[in-house]
Amino acid sequence: MASEKTILIQGTEDLARGEMDNVTLDGGAVVLEQAEGRYVLFGCYTTPAFSVPVSGELLVSWNADTPEGTVVEIQARVLAHDEWSGWLGFGKWSPYLQRQGVWQEPASRPYVQGGRLIVPTQNAISVQLRAYLYTNDEGRTPALRLLAVSARPRVWQKQEGKPLNREIRMPSYSQLNRAPVFKGQLSGPTTLAALMNRFGQDILPEELALVCQDWAPETKWENAAFDAAAAGCYGYPAWQAWLDLAGLKEEIRQGNPVMARVDYAGSPEEETAGLPWIEGVTGTAHHHWLAIRGFEHDEDKKEEYVLVCDPLSGTDYGAERQYRLEGFLKAFSGACLLTRRRPRDSGKSAPERLCCELRSSGEEGCYFFYREATPLPLPPREEEPPTEKQEGEQPAYRPVREILACTFQEEKAYATTAHKHFRFDLTATGEGAIRLPEAIREKGKRITVYAIDASGRMKVAERTL
User: Fold this and answer.
1) Does the pTM exceed 0.85?
2) Is residue 144 within 8 Å of residue 64, measured between CB atoms?
3) What's the CATH number for 6-153?
4) Distance from first CA to last CA of the chain, Å, rounded?
C-alpha cells in the first residue's frame, strides 16, 4: 500500500510482490524457508523499487518477530540522477541483541543516521528496501511483518486541513519521574508506552527504553527506527512517517494519536539556535517526542490548539497540555511515528514478564527472585571502564544494562502500572539478590519489586515485608 509520501508494505498481498531468496510467506509475514523440517540459517527479501516525491531525506521502519537467536537486518538504496546508490544498512535488530544503529558522518553521498537515510546533494526519486533474516537455531525463524519508507519532499506543499474538534483519551506520563539512570532522556519510550497502554498493554517506559536502546557509541539521539521496531515486536504495527498538519488531523479524525518530534526553547529569552518557543512548555527540548491526542478549535477567538501529552513535565497529570497551534507548528519537524491496534495473537516473541516470588536471602533486606521453587539470581554486575573526559565534553555514552525498581501498595487505584510511584534506589548483592534501601524496610508493607534486563525482560514479585 502506498501514499504520496509513505510506502507501507504489510500483509500477504503487499509482501508477495517482493523477490524471495531462501524465504517464503507464512501467516502474512516473511519467514525463512524450511528444509527437512529445519529452517535455513539465512535468507533475503527484496521489495520492488518504488517511486517517491523528489526527496532529500527518507525514514525507514520495520516490524518483525525475532525470537531469541534470530535477527533481521534492513537495508535501503535510492535512485538519484539515474544512478542507484549502494545498499545502506540500518543495523541488525532483535530485542535480545546488543543492537547498534548506523550513525554515519555527513557526506556528499547518501548516508544513514539512525532510522534516517539522508541524500544531501542529490534528489532521490525511487527507493528499494531489502531485509536479511538470520537464525542460529534451526527450530526458529524471524518473521518480517512490515516494511515502511517515508520520503520528505524537497518541495513540500504542506496542507493545513479543516479545523477539527476532537480529543482522544490516553495515558500521560512524565519522563522526568522515570529511572534516573536515563537522566530524563526518555521522551520516545515514555510517549510510545502511553500509545501502547491506550490499547491495554500496561508496559513501563523503562521496559520499552531497554528494548529500543541503541548501543552504538556514536548515538547522538534516539533511534526512531528502533522505537518502531520495539512496538512491532510487541505486535503493534508502527512506522515512521512525514506528516503535515492535514496528515496529523486525519490521524486524529480516525482515532489514532500520533507520536511527533519537536524542538523548542524553554522561554522566549532562550529562542536561540533557531529553536522556537511554545507558550506553556516547561523546558528546552531537542529531538523531543510527544503525543498529539487531539485538536481544539475556538470559533469565537479564531484560535486553534493542539492537545498533547508532553512528557517534559514534572508530573504525569501535568503532561496533558494544550499548545497554540501556530506556536506548535514552528517546533514541529514533520517526523512522526504512527501506531495501530495490535492484531490478535501477535507479539508472541516480545520480551516476557516473569511472575516470581521473593524469598529472603538470609541477609536483612535482601531477597532472591524465585520461580516455581527455582532461584533466579540477577546477573553479575559489569564494571564500566573509566573514561577520560576533557573539560566541557559530554561523558561517554554507556548503555543501560539493568533497571531495579519497586512500588508499594497504595489506596489509590491507577489506570496503568506506569502511573504508580516508583523507587529506583534498589541495589543488587554480589550473589544476585535484591537489596532494599533501609529506609523502606517497614514491616507489614506490601511491596512489588521489578528487575528489567537489557533485553526488556522483566521479573516482578510481590511480598509483605
Assistant:
1) yes
2) yes
3) 2.60.120
4) 55
